[in-house]
Structures are given as structure tokens and as C-alpha cells.
Write a structure and sequence with these properties.
Blueprint: H1 3-28, E1 35-39, E2 42-44, E3 48-57, H2 70-81, E4 90-95, E5 98-103, E6 109-115, E7 126-133, E8 145-151, E9 160-163, H3 177-186, H4 198-207, E10 217-224, H5 228-237, E11 245-248, H6 262-276, E12 282-287, H7 292-302, E13 307-313, H8 320-332, E14 337-340, H9 343-352, H10 361-369
Parallel strand pairs: 2-8, 9-10, 9-12, 10-11, 12-13, 13-14
Antiparallel strand pairs: 1-3, 2-3, 3-6, 4-5, 4-7, 7-8
């Protein structure tokens, strides 16, 4: 066995036992006095739904305000990352005629994947799934319930959109560690601003050319699940279409020091969306900073004929020869890729293809020019 594997096994053993000890202390000392189910929005088709969630100590993190201080922002972010996860408890999911009971893993995560032999009864695109905690953990515990929302394509859907977040929607400096940590821990959903024109462009894509807001958005990022509520609030504050948000766990695992690489995580999540939303064509949006073009190329190879367009925000001054090679290879598969500096460029192209109306371009251009 290599030194790396021995070190990983030792660290994982220590981490697991420390976590178990802290959980026991937290429950016995009543430091953990309130439990919550945190469901993450999911997606599905006419006969199946999928989503993940987590069971944690409720730390009472509220939405932010524009006037919140840097210290207040830091305290909220500290609470998000210093989570107290609850492993080994059962969660029951109930949706229409289906039920599924699952057990949380060592980090408190659970996943629900319900399949039906008959089509679901749908009255709209967003469906509600009831969740119930089956275990009694703290003294005087009341029912621990949650409701999750799952998107199922309903009517007038022209295409789906899958978008990265970091340096695609919002400048984060993901390629520069200090800048990324500073913007993550000291800002909030109001002070973090998206690239100009992004909100307008994404709203136009959601409505499509028929003007009906029915085209679904899916967000895939390598940010940790700890940031889920922060990112969902960010989308709402800046009027960017909401949708399922696929993040990742950054904790130590049995196999890796960090649970999954950026490439592996993003490719796996994007392809999960393609597998479940099997009747939808997609527009993919990313940036040139963290391998999005390479990941999207692999998606095109694995799902031929399913990708309409790839937009890549150009945030790097180098590496264009590699991007040109990827663009050429994509062209061989019949998929165009456009390197853009602003959302206006992408909007003008989408309008020319008939995917969004021409009338949407002017406001997007004004926002981009104001940057």
C-alpha cells in the first residue's frame, strides 16, 4: 500500500471517529437541540424524480440584507461551513403514490430517486415532495418535516439550459484562491453582483421565443453544498431564473482527500441531468477558467444530438489555442461553441438563432455596456 493510501486511511479513520465523538457530545450536552432536513431542489421526468438533501443541526441562518456588515456576513458563512451533520438517520420521501425511505451517510447526505411504472399526475412544472425524519434524536423533539420542490418539464418547453456559476454568472476569482475566499466569506447575496446582462439573458432564455417562462435552468458548480442557501438567495435577489442547483461535498472521503475533482463532479452532474431529462435538447453555458469547454465536449460525445449550443465566457488571456482545438472538435459533432466577453454577445447570437426574441437584446446590451 502506498504512503498516500496509508495517510488517507489514517486521516479518514481519525476524522470519522472525531465526528462520531462530537456528535455524541453534541446530542448528550444538548448543543444539538434542533434538527432540520435541508432538501436541495430536484428534477425529473414523467416517471421519475431525483434530488439530494442533508440532515443538519438547525443553526438559524437567516437571509441577508444589503446593509449587513462584513462581520455579520462572515458569521453567517462560518455557520454554513461549521455545520453539524447528522449521519445514520432515516428520511421518508412521499410523492403522489410513491414512498422511499433512505438513510443519511456519514456526512448527513441522502439522495432520493423515485421511479414510477405509471406517469405522474402533473398540474405544473414544479412538484412538491414531502420529507419526514423517522428517528427521535433530541429531547422533546417535534416532527421534523420538509417539503422539496422538483422540476418536471410540463408544457411549452423548447430546451433546457445548464449553467456554471463561478465566473460564468458571478465574478469570483475561482482561479485565484485568496480572491475567491475573500468574496465568499465577506460578501452576501446582495453585495455579490452578477456579470452585467446575465440576469436579462437568462430570463430571456427561460422564456424562449414564445415568451412563456417554461424553459428550465439547471446550475452545476464545484462550490460546496454549504453554500446552497446563499446561492439560491443570490439567484432570487438578482432575479436570475431559479432551478435545481448541483453542488458537491468537499470533505475527506475513503478514496480521496477531497471528495471528487471539479472535472469528475461537474461531468457526472451534467450527465445525470441529461439522463433524466432525456427528451430535452440543451444549451450549455460556462467559462474558460475551469475546464468547462473540455467537460462540455465530453458531454457532446456521450450524448450526441442533445446539445444545441455552447456559450463560454472568456475570462483568461491565455489558452486560446486549446479552446480553438475544442471548438473545431465540437464542430465535427455539429455543435457550435461561441467564446464571449459579455452576455450581450451571447444574447445577440441566441436571437439570431430564434431562441430568444430580438426585443430582449437592447436591455441586455445596456447592462453589459454599463460594466
Amino acid at each position: 500500500m502506498s504512503f498516500k493510501k496509508i495517510s488517507l486511511s489514517l486521516l479518514y479513520f481519525l476524522k470519522s471517529n472525531i465526528s462520531k465523538g462530537l456528535l455524541w457530545i453534541g446530542l448528550k450536552s444538548k448543543l444539538i437541540d434542533k434538527i432540520m432536513i435541508v432538501p436541495y431542489k430536484g428534477f425529473g421526468n414523467e416517471t421519475e424524480i431525483y434530488f439530494v438533501g442533508r440532515v443538519l443541526k438547525d443553526r438559524g441562518i437567516e437571509n441577508s440584507n444589503p446593509e449587513d456588515s462584513t462581520w455579520k456576513n462572515f458569521k453567517k458563512m462560518y455557520k454554513r461551513f461549521m455545520s453539524w451533520e447528522i449521519p445514520g438517520v432515516k428520511i421518508k420521501a412521499i410523492f403522489q403514490h410513491l414512498e422511499q425511505t433512505v438513510t443519511t451517510d456519514e456526512e448527513g447526505y441522502f439522495s432520493i430517486h423515485l421511479k414510477s411504472s405509471e406517469p405522474f399526475l402533473l398540474d405544473g412544472p414544479w412538484q412538491e415532495v414531502k420529507l419526514e425524519l423517522q428517528d427521535y434524536l433530541v429531547k422533546n423533539q417535534k416532527e421534523v418535516l420538509a417539503v422539496n420542490k422538483v422540476f418536471i418539464p410540463f408544457k411549452n418547453v423548447e430546451y433546457g439550459i445548464i449553467s456554471d456559476i463561478d465566473d460564468t454568472i458571478v465574478p469570483t476569482g475561482a482561479t485565484r484562491l485568496f480572491t475567491m475566499l475573500k468574496t465568499t466569506f465577506l460578501g452576501n447575496a446582495h453585495t455579490r453582483l452578477p456579470f452585467p446582462g446575465v440576469a436579462g439573458f437568462y430570463r430571456a432564455l427561460a422564456k424562449g421565443n414564445d415568451g412563456i417562462e417554461s424553459n428550465p435552468f439547471f446550475y452545476v458548480s464545484s462550490s460546496p453544498w454549504n453554500l446552497y442557501d446563499f446561492l439560491m438567495e443570490f439567484l432570487e435577489v438578482h432575479e436570475i431564473p431559479k432551478g435545481p442547483l448541483m453542488l458537491r461535498d468537499l470533505g475527506l472521503s475513503r478514496e480521496q482527500f477531497i471528495a471528487g475533482s471539479h472535472w469528475e463532479h461537474k461531468l457526472r452532474q451534467v450527465e445525470k441531468i441529461f439522463e433524466i431529462e432525456r427528451h430535452l435538447p440543451f444549451i450549455l453555458i460556462g467559462d474558460s477558467g475551469q475546464h468547462d469547454p473540455e467537460i462540455y465536449l465530453q458531454v457532446v460525445k456521450d450524448f450526441p444530438g442533445r446539445v444545441k449550443m455552447i456559450y463560454i465566457r472568456d475570462i483568461k488571456s491565455s489558452g486560446h489555442a486549446k479552446l480553438a482545438a475544442i471548438e473545431k472538435e465540437l464542430k465535427d459533432f455539429g455543435v457550435p461553441m461561441l467564446l464571449i466577453k459579455s452576455s450581450h454577445e451571447a444574447a445577440a447570437h441566441a436571437a439570431a438563432q430564434g431562441w430568444i426574441p430580438e426585443a430582449a437584446i437592447s436591455s441586455i446590451q445596456q447592462a453589459a455596456e454599463a460594466y
